[in-house]
Design a protein that fits this description.
Distance between the termini: 24 Å
Number of strands: 0
Radius of gyration: 18 Å
Order of helices and strands: HHHHHHHHHHHHH
Structural class: mainly alpha
Number of helices: 13
Length: 289
Amino acid sequence: MRNVQLRWIYLLVLSIIWGSSFILIKKSLIGLTPIQVGALRILITAIVLLSVGFKELFTIQKKHWYYIFLTAVLGTFFPAFLFAYAINGIDSSIASILNSLTPLNTLLIGALLFGFRFIPRQLTGILIGLIGTAILIFKGAELNPHQNYWYAFFVIASSIGYAFNVNILKKYLSDLSALSVTTGNFVILIIPASMVLWYSGFFQTFELTEATRPSLIYITLLAVFGTAFAKTLFNRLVQMSSPVFSTSVTYLIPIVAVSWGLLDGEHLKVIQLIGGALILLGVYMTNRK
């Protein structure tokens, strides 16, 4: 199968998996704290990846480890916790739409820091996307006063981390297999995630009951499919395409995530949909040839 066809298949599969991740985080938070969700997500993913990708670690050279560390911290560690806190404060559907800022941030950071091409029309797309973000946040706070829309900035911070991640991956780690990079990321994060989970009080206070058992099931599904499998697939997509194309998966993620949110009783107003549409329009303009 040609790379052009394969990368679109990867994009579709990732949109379904990551679009479902927001509702899985939301359900995990019923029995776990945000910090426990983030730490467990990392640790379960690390166990899965080591079971299938341990040998891949030996293909990583000394020169790679610095960049693998950067991608681990910026593209995995902080976003795992930031998204859990964000969805604890705002609707999962809103978080998924704000995540669509990732391609815009990827373009900006790639052009400013990594030497990737940047054309004026793409700047217009970025500005439109920022207008959509402002509408989504400020109108969302007005329409949902019971939610804390300061948490929306956690999603924006995560999107910046993802932007650094894909640019570093494309420029410095393209000679490694996707599984090598992903396994290396999570090997680095095992100790800090374990320390976070310990100090969260999980081992001292958590009890497995009928109420908390579903949370562990949801976080396991999130770790195995939404992180281990999806991260490996995404890293491969970045290697076979461009950073901006790869992050354009965020076109489709909100469709899946908003559908799950509506099924779970979340509500979106017309003005919020307009804000989301402006973000996606901005993303489209930055990607259009």
